[in-house]
Structures are given as C-alpha cells and as structure tokens.
Amino acid sequence: MKYFLRSLAYAWSYRHRLTISLLCALFAAFLWGANFTAIYPILKLLHSNQTLHQWVETCIAQTQAEIDQWSEKVDNVAEREKKLGQLEPGRATDRHMRQAAHEGLRLENKLAAARLRLYWYQIAKQYIAGFLPNDAFAALACILGLLIAGIIIKCFFEFVQESIIGSVVNYTVCDLRNEFFRKVIHYDVAQFKQKGTSTTELMARFTSDMEAVGTGLKLVFGKVIAEPLRVVSCVIIACMISWQLTAFFLILVPIAVLIIHQVARIMKKATRRVLEQMSSIYKILQESFGNIRAVKGFTREARERRRFLEATRDYHQRATRVVFIEALCDPIIETLGLTAVALALLAGSYLVLTRSTMLFGMQMTSQPMDPETLLQLYILLAATADPVRKLSSVFTRLQSAEAASQRVFECIDRQPAILPNADGPRIERPTWLPLRGKSEGPTKVPLEPRPLIEFRHVCFSYEKDEPALLDINFGVRAGETIALVGPNGCGKSTLVGLLPRFYDPDHGSILIDGKDLRKVNLRTLRQQVCLVTQDALLFDDTIFNNIAYGCPGATLEQVERAAKLAMAHDFIQRTPKGYQTSIGEIARVSGGERQRLALARAILRDPSILVLDEFTSAADAEKEVDIHRALKEFKQGRTLFIITHRMHSLEIADRIVVLDSGRVVAVGTHAELIASCPTYQRLVEAHGKRLAA
C-alpha cells in the first residue's frame, strides 16, 4: 500500500478539517452504541409488571443484600485465615491457607462486581427518577423519543463528517492531479512516446485512475475511520455486560482478517488489469475519432467497430472478475459474523436456561444472566455485523486505489533526461535584433563570419541500433538562412528538433556561441529558438490568444503586425469577431490558415533562431509567394532553418544542406550542389518532373 499511502500525504494540508471529521465520527459511533442500550429498558417494561422506578429500586435492594452476603462471607474467610495463621506451620496448614486465600480472592471479586453493579444501578436511578415518568407507558414513550433524538443527532454528525470528508477528498485529488500535471508537462518530448506515458495512457491516468484514488481516499477518511469506531463502541458496551461471551464473538476475527488479506491481493492485480484495458479503450477512441477522415474515406467503420468491440469485451471480462471478487467478500464475512454471533448466543442461552455462571469450567458472569440481558448482548453483537460487512468491501476497494495510485506515481516519479539547467549560462538575444514592437522591422546586418551554431559529430537514434542521424558536422553563421533538403526519412526534422533540445544527441554535441546546449539554461535557449511545423496545432481559444501564446503580454498592435507578416490578417478580419473569434466558433479552419496562424505566433515570439518545417505545405502558390516576400524582410539578422520539398522555397536560403540516410552528403549553394551533388540533382530533377506532370 506504499503508493496509496503517498496519496494520503497530500491530505496533510487539510488535517484540521480531518480532525473535525474524526470528532464527528467519535460522537456518531458513541451514539450508535448508546442507542442500542435502549433495548434493555424497553424489554424490561414490556416483560415485567414493574415500572423502571420500581425495577431499579428492586435491583438496588437485591444488590445491597448480595453485597451484605458477600461481605459476611469475606469476613468469615478472613477470620478463618487468622485462625490458620495461629497454627503450627505444616503441609496441611499450608494447604488450608492456600484454599482460604483462593476462596477469599473469589469472594472479593464477587463483592467488587456487586459493588460495581450497585454503582451503576444508583446512577440509573438518578437518571430514571430525573427524566422518566413513573407510568410504564409514558416511560416507554419517553425512551422511544430519546432514541429518535439520539438517532437524529447521530445522523447530523454523520452528515457533517461526510461533507467534510468529501471536501477534503476533492481538494486532495485536485492537488494530486495538479502535481501530476506539473510533472508530466516537464517530460521530454521523447517520453510522451514511451510505454505508459503516451497521450492515451496519460488520459486514462488523469481520469479513471485519479477517480479510483479519490474513491480510496474517501473510504479511508470515511468508512475506515467511522465503521471501526462503531464496532468498538458496541464491543465495549458488550464487554461491560460480559467480556467472556464477547470474546466468543471475536474468536473468528483472525480468520476473517486472513480471508480479507488474500482477497485484497487478488483484487489489486485484477484492478490493475482493468485500468490498463481502459487505457487501450482510450487509445482506440483517439485513433478512430482523430483519423475519422481516413476511417470513412477507406470505409473501415466495420474494422474500427470490431476493434472497439474486442477491447470493450476484454474490459467487460476483467471488470466482471473485479465485481465477482468484491461480491464474494461480503457473503464470506457476513457468514463468519453470523457464525460468531450464533456461538455467543448459544453460549449465553445455555447460561440463561441453566441459571449458571460457568461454561467449560470458566466463570462467564458474576451472577445468573436474565433473558433481557442476553438479548441486549445479542443485539449489540449483531449491530457490529453491518460495520464489519462494510469494512470487508473497503479493503478490496483500497487495493483498487493502490493499483491506481501506483500507475499515477509511476508517472510522477519519472524524471526527464533533459534538465532545465537553471544555473547554466544563458543564451542572450543578439544585440542587432530590436526588441519586439520597438521598430517597424529588424535592422539588416551582414552575416557574422564566426559560426553561431555548430554540429560536431552529432549522432542520434530514437531506438537502439536504428540511427536517425550519423556524424553530422557543419556550422551555421549568425544571420544565415539554411535550407535542409533530402528524401523523406533522411533526418531533417530530427536534426532541427535537436536545436530546442526536444532530444539530446547520443554522441557529439551542438554548440551555440561556443556553448554546449546540454549545459546552457534551457529556458533562455528555447526563448531564442522557435519552431513552426507542418502540423500546425491550435488551442481552443481566441485567435488573439493563439497568436500571442508565446508572448502573453503582447498588444493587439503587435499581434496584428505579426499576422500581417504571416499573411493571416485578411482571413482573420473575415471571421465573426476578428481577433477575438474563438477557433471553436469557426466552422472550418483550413490547413493553410492554420499554418499562417502558427507562423504569426512564431513571428510575434521574435526569436533569433527560427525553424520552419514544411511551413507552407498547405498554402496556395499566391500565398506562398507573399509569405516568402514577408520572410525575406523578417529573416534579416536572424538565423533561419527551412525544411522543404519545394525547390522554389530555396531562393531565400543562403546555403543548402543535403541529407540522405541520416548523413550530411553536401553543403553549398544551389549552383554548387547542382554541379557536384548527385542526391541534390535527383531531388531537383524529381521536382521538375512533378511540375511538368
């Protein structure tokens, strides 16, 4: 239960509320047991012809007479011990002394028990005389009224306890979920593709697993505290009647605990399988609905239905097993509880019917037990059955919470490989670049002769023994525009993904201004590197907030300027509310429009290093020309990386890097590569054939 205990630690901040709920549980448990004590006076009123006043007076008189009788016997034994002490020591004298001492101790115990009963009878007399009328029926009505009042008060305390626990559990789960998100949002990009931390897995852990943890917390702070207190209150009162008979009832407790422990272990494994299968269902839903165009375009609805049907059937089978295990626990515990009550009732019935105080040679009561006392004891023991039954299901459900907690804390404990390096050297903004909004355009400066970015023997692989990049070596001067070209899968996107440290090289190093990226301050690095990908992702927010996502303090003027440079201003103005239009309110946002909004977001970020990965793949020819014209102005003084399959996009590049099979095969201008690089020649030739077709 170590993982679930860790989740309990998040409730420590709300310990004052939990203290109040514990006090409410104590009062409710006390009233739970006390309410059952009303059975005895009710039975006395119904069974005898006396009022409670007469009954308590009779009990006091009988007990006083009994005390006098035991006192006389004790005095006689003391006198006998005194006479034996005057005899000469010997074996017979010692034996008689031991017998007298044993008998004296037994009589002292009986006398002490009688005095204790007299004490309680006198207290009862005080309350009966003070609160109950002398008429039998009126006294019965008064007792029932007090019983109802006690139940109402008990229910009030239970209501307060449940309300406080509900609020504490909600706060605790909220804190745990926020901590979970805080850890996950700092994962490396690669970690989101690993087993257990994929998007669908995380969705399952944030929802169904977290709900299971919340259910476990509610059980711990609720039933695990309240139900044992109820049992304890009933057992204490039962022990006051006869602790020996109560022990008969408790004899099967170790067996019940052993059974619950075994069932709980099985329950934990079964629940974990259910949660894992729920993750599979989330995965199928995401794939089917996220690729709905492909599903419908290839008429594969039937296949997706079969996949979902198989997953839900598997989930049904595993969930049914959990239900079966949980359902099996209640009958077992209830059977053991009733068996224990039956044993106690059978032993008590023997004492009542035979008017005996001994059973199996053991003293069970100080005086013969009457039927009313036996029924009172039986009702108290039977009253423990309901809390015990509820507790039996609690332990199996706690195992479900433990399995869910384990899945949650597995993600919380996972550490990213790429650390922020808060104390590392900072990547500063180049002095020739103006601050955002301070001028109409950046100042044009010549290329820096020294390399701003250096790739030194860079090797990288996503999977072991499957290299994506091999021995990458080249430098990029400050303010230079580099185009990366090559066939699909050659490593272009992987290479630029190393710049903002989405991944780290397996071997070699990448330097900016002579500083190894592994050692620099990660936040300042990513503030200077901006990436625009082919898959432009937008948030369900206003267009203004989407463009200003990387610059929360941006003004409307700055956002409009960035949108105009990205050729997005015109279509934004055509939306119902302009820049305040929510993306969700627009019936359709085309791929080209999405890319232009993403480009506007990058322009507003005003980075010194801009990476454009197929950023105009969805734009028409006219818009692409306009975007290229705007980039020629914006890129001045900035270092720019362009990944493209469109050869005419290379016109804005100063140099071209050709990659093939994860290696750099050539670096140069268009003219140099046409003359010397076969790979580049094939790419240009293929592009020409495509245009001719």
The pLDDT mean sits at 82
3D shape: elongated
Radius of gyration: 41 Å
Number of helices: 22
* Percent in strands: 5-15%
Largest sheet: 6 strands, mixed
Low-confidence stretches: 437-446
Q: For the record, give the distance between the C-alpha atoms at the N and C termini, rounded to a whole number.
A: 67 Å
Structural class by SSE content: alpha/beta
The counted number of beta strands is 12
Helix content: 55-70%
Order of strands, main sheet, comes to 8-9-10-5-11-12
Write out key terms for the chains shown.
693 residues, alpha/beta, 6-stranded mixed sheet, 4-stranded antiparallel sheet, 22 helices, 63% helix, 10% strand
Could you characterize the architecture of this molecule?
There is one protein chain. The chain is α/β, with parallel strands linked by helices and 693 residues long. 63% of the residues lie in helices and 10% in strands. The chain contains 22 helices and twelve strands. The strands form three sheets. The protein has a six-stranded mixed beta sheet with strand order 8-9-10-5-11-12. Strands 4-3-6-7 form a four-stranded antiparallel beta sheet, with no helix packed on it. A hairpin with a 2-residue loop joins strand 6 and strand 7 (515-516). Helix 1 crosses helix 13 (385-412) and helix 8 packs across helix 12.
Topology readout:
Blueprint: H1 2-9, H2 15-36, H3 39-47, H4 52-86, H5 91-131, H6 136-184, H7 199-221, H8 223-250, H9 253-290, H10 292-297, H11 301-354, E1 358-359, E2 362-363, H12 371-383, H13 385-412, E3 451-463, E4 466-477, E5 481-485, H14 492-497, E6 507-512, E7 515-516, H15 522-528, E8 529-532, H16 543-547, H17 556-565, H18 569-573, H19 591-605, E9 609-613, H20 621-634, E10 639-643, E11 655-660, E12 663-668, H21 670-676, H22 678-692
Parallel strand pairs: 5-10, 5-11, 8-9, 9-10
Antiparallel strand pairs: 1-2, 3-4, 3-6, 6-7, 11-12
Helix pairs in contact: 1-13, 2-6, 2-8, 3-12, 4-5, 6-7, 6-13, 7-8, 7-9, 7-13, 8-11, 8-12, 8-13, 9-11, 9-13, 11-12, 11-13, 17-19, 21-22
